[in-house]
Amino acid sequence: xxxxxxKFDHVQLAAPKGCEEAARGxxxxxxxxxxxxxxxxxxKRGGVWFEFGTFQIHIGVEEPFFPAKKAHPAFVVExxxxxxxxxxxxxxxxxxxxxxxxASRIHLHDPFGNRLEFLxxx
Length: 122
Description:
Strand content: 25-35%
Structural class: alpha/beta
Number of strands: 8
Shape: globular
Number of helices: 3
Radius of gyration: 15 Å
Order of helices and strands: EHEHEEEHEEE
Helix content: 10-25%
Oligomer: single chain
């Protein structure tokens, strides 16, 4: 091959129009991701972007909106038990999954119904 895929730059999740404050509350306040400013030309489309490390997650407006029930990003976390306690304290429902050998993982949905996975390799 004459090219090499090196890494993900970002993952985009769809959300309904007017999603920005709920996205900031969940991805920014609850999960602790840092909001990044969208390029001026893209701001008029709505949505909001976040980053962690060298990766970004873009919450983009899609009409009509249908949440991703199967497709999902998977976030590697450190200290998943603390994440579970935080989610429980905020009444965010999640389900455990022990089907991936060597990983402690949970699944939940963002405020828009998109599936998210969080895992810690043990």
